[in-house]
Amino acid sequence: MNILVLNGPNLNLLGKREPEVYGSMTLENVISDLRRYAESVDVELTHFQSNAEHELIEKIQNVLIDSLPIHGIIINPAAFTHTSVAIRDALLALNLPIIEVHLSNVHARESFRQHSYISDIADGVIVGLGHLGYRFAVDALVSKYTTKNN
Known about the structure:
The chain has 5 helices and 5 strands, in the order βααβαβαββα. It has helices spanning 19-22, 27-40, 53-65, 85-94, 132-148, and strands spanning 2-7, 44-49, 72-76, 98-102, 124-127. Strand 3 (72-76), helix 4 and strand 4 (98-102) form a beta-alpha-beta unit. The chain starts with a strand and ends with a helix. The model has no long low-confidence stretch (mean pLDDT 93). The active site is at residues 22, 102. GO terms for molecular function: 3-dehydroquinate dehydratase activity.
C-alpha cells in the first residue's frame, strides 16, 4: 500500500514555531517516525511539504496525471485548511480515501480555525493528538484499504 502525506504551510517550522501548540518535534522527525511506523505495517510513504498552495495542488494532480500508485492521502493543509477551495477541488478529482490531520485541537482555538474546506470530503479527521495523529491516519487508511481489497 502507498500513502501520500501532504503538509502545508509553516509545518516546516515544527519544533521552532509555537512548540506549546504544535510540539517540539521537527517535521523531519515526525516524518522519520511515521516512515518507521508505516514500514512496520507494510506501507510505503511519499511525503511532500510546501508553503505554496499551487505546489500542493500540483502534487495532488500528479497522482492522477501520472497514474501514481497511491492508495490514500493523509493531509495536514495547515492554514490552507481554512482558505483553499483549490486544494479541496484537487483532492475531489482523485477519488481516493483522505484523512485530514491537525496537530492541535483546532476546535479549541480561534474561530477562523474551526472551519475546514477539507473535512466534509475527508473520510476522517484527526485533531489535537500531535504527531500521533499521523500514525492513526495510517492505521485508518490501512484498514480502509484492507477492507476494500478483501
